[in-house]
Amino acid sequence: MAIIEDSRILMMKALIVGIAALTLVPVSAVAMEPAASDSAQKDDASKDGDQNRVICKREKIIGSRLGSKKTCATEAEWAQMRAEQRQATERVQANRPRQN
Predict the structure, then answer these.
(1) Is the pLDDT reported for residue 23 higher than 60?
(2) What is the DSSP letter of 61?
(3) CA distance 33 to 21
């Protein structure tokens, strides 16, 4: 009887771990969504060519199902922010220690 009880407990633990792992999968998909919408908005803005046009973007807050933040800026300001982010990334990547 004790062996049957132990195997049931192990099966329940495995089931709980499996369900917990499956709940984490959609989080990565949600985290990637803003990148797709950003590129679509960037393409629309570059077609128009108007650097003074105000573009508003809604960014999802990671770790929150309902939370989001709306940011508005001109196309020139968005381009400047992208350039600064790119430079910061390149600076961090250039300063990485080399692994032997």
Answers:
(1) yes
(2) P
(3) 21
